Each structure stands twice: as structure tokens, then as C-alpha cells.
Amino acid sequence: MQLIEERLQVDTSYFDLYLYKASILNWQSKFSEAREVLDSISIYIEDQEEEFQAIYFNSYLWEKDYLSALDLIEGLSPQKQSSQQWLMSKGAVFYALEEYNKLRVVALELLEIDRTNSQAILWQKFAERKLAKNSLRVEYDYEWLDQNFDDWQLFSLEYGRRFSFGEIFIRTNRAYRFGITDNQVEMDGYVNVSEKYYSYLNFGLSPGILFPSLRWGVELYRSLSGGFELSIGSRHLYFSNLDVNMVTASATKYLGNWYFQFRPYMTIFEGEFFAAADINLRYYLADANHFISLGLGRGFSPDDPGRFALNLQPAVTADEFVPYGLRLSKAFIAYDRPITDYWTGKIQLTYNEEEFVPERFRERLQLLLSMKKRF
Description:
The protein is an alpha+beta fold. It folds into two domains: 2-125, Alpha Horseshoe (Serine Threonine Protein Phosphatase 5, Tetratricopeptide repeat), CATH 1.25.40.10; 134-374, Porin, CATH 2.40.160.40. The protein contains nine helices and 16 strands. The protein has helices at residues 2-10, 15-27, 31-40, 49-62, 66-74, 78-81, 84-97, 100-113, 118-131; strands at 134-145, 152-163, 166-177, 180-192, 197-205, 214-223, 228-238, 243-255, 258-269, 272-284, 291-298, 311-314, 321-324, 328-338, 343-357, 360-374. The chain has a 14-stranded antiparallel β-barrel with strand order 1-2-3-4-5-6-7-8-9-10-11-14-15-16. It has a two-stranded antiparallel sheet with strand order 12-13. Strand 14 (328-338) and strand 15 (343-357) form a beta hairpin. Helix 3 (31-40) packs antiparallel against helix 4 (49-62), helix 4 (49-62) runs antiparallel to helix 5 and helix 7 packs antiparallel against helix 8 (100-113). It is elongated and about 80 Å long.
């Protein structure tokens, strides 16, 4: 800073250096001093007006004087206010002020300019989750099997509610397999831990044999800079004749309008270890609710849409089931899109090749249809 002062004493018209000095003062949290420097040259910087206004805005934003920051933006010309730079600045203010209606509007305006704007996609998704406290989802899953097996069906009905601490979902599942009908009740929770951490909780009960009699899971997520997110957790499934325990983790990256996720699983089953992994790719077409997904998987995942613990195969007696299916390969393609402002739909097609008895494999083709309403 001393070198800057010495140079400015020699050349008082070196306005780039004044701007640099104000930026340094902002970084040092000396916001009032930064604005004093900017005020002293305000009538001389027509050629550098954009940079001048951006530094002035940052001094308010970083000082958490959000109303003054918003006043600065609203004092700009309509053309500037509708530019991507200042819409991003306005979005940051609305996010800080928890003005979620206005944040959603800004996010949609940004996506009209650039549909690959990952920050706008995240803002829209975040704002809509904050605004709509309730959700209702209906899902139907139909599976065709080869080798003369009867087709499988799963029907799910889910209610979700947003609270100050996060979101809770209660879901009922009704399955038809092997001529048997079974039911399950599940609860999922996404709980805010801090600004950068949130957790996932799962608990489920079933009186039958198609679903685990008890399942539970927990996972901790950490948001990082650069659009990265990491997590680590576990899943636990209990049948009448076996227990399955899993450790899982995930690495997620948002890049433009792309979303990448890698999720490995380590299954501990009857004293043996089985590794599995899923890779998911998502491409956002317009906003956070309109995208195409592709996925590949190898090995058993307890987070499949069917939510079965294992693909069970009837044994000698009708009331005893033997688990197979730890050797599994799958691929899927899905399409999600808004139908109205509060309705979204989804269609997913999945191909599975799985072991159903030792060293014998079968193919499954799975169609999933889903409708969700937020209110």
C-alpha cells in the first residue's frame, strides 16, 4: 500500500491505481475507506465506470450492507441492470436477503441469457425449494424380465414438507413380485447442519419379505468451492434371514450446465466385501427442473428407484428368500421437465443385466414414470 501512495503522490491522475487501491481496501475489510477513495475520483472515471461501480458494489456486499448494494444496482440504467454482470450481482443480494421470489426471477432472467449458467441453475433450484413448502409425488415402475419370469411392478406415493431445518419426505411403496404383494413405509430427511454442510437420513419399515423389514441410512454432505460437493455415509438393510451393511460416498461437480456424480459402494455381506459404483451425468436444458440424465452402474446399489434391498429369488419354500443380485450391470437414460410452474414430470428407461442364481444371468428392462407437484 505504501508504494501505491508514493506513486499517487507523483501522478494524481493514475485512476487505475486508485481503483486498485480501493480493491485492496475491500480485501482488507476497510469498506468505508474504499468508498472514500472511489468518491474522490468519481467524476474522472467515465472510461472505467463499470469497474468503478463493481468495486463500489463489492464494498457494500462484503460489508453485508445489502440494501445499499441493491440501491446501487437500481440506480443503474435499465440496460445495465438487465446485463448478466449486474443480474448476477442482484442475485447475490437477493440470496443474502432471503428474497427467494426475487431470486427465482433473477435466475430465470440469467438462464434466458445463458442456459449454461450453473450459478443461475443452483439459485433457481434453491429458490424453488425455499418457496414451495409442500410436494406430492406419484411414481410407477414397471419391469420386464426375460427367461419366463413374471413382470414386476412398484407404485410409490410420496409427500414432502420443507421446514426451517431442511426437508422431510414420507413415502409408501407397494411392490408386486413373484406373485407376492408387499408394502413399505420410508422417511427421508435432508437436514441443514451449517452453511456448507447438510445431512441425509433414511428410515424404512416393511412387514413383508420383498422389502427389508428395517432399513436406515445416514450421509453427510460438504459443499466446496468451484461447484464441488463431497459426501460420506452408510446404508443398513435387515431381512429376517440376513443383514446387509454398506459404506458409500460421492463426489459431485457442477460445470456450466453439466452435472457429474461418482458414487462408490462397499457392501459387507456374510463376511464378504463387494464393491459397486454408479456414475451419473446430467445436462440441464433450460433450468434446474429441465434436464437429461445418463447413468452407468456396476454392482448393487440400495438407492435404485425400486428401493429393493436385493433382487430376491424364491427358494424352495414360499416364505424363504435367497438373495442374489450383487453382480449387476445397468445403464439408464432419463428425462425431467416442468409441465407447469408447479408440476414436473419424469420418464426413465433402465437396462439391467443381473445374476439371479449363481452364475446365471437375466435381463430386465425397467420403465419409470413420475409426476411431482409443489405447493
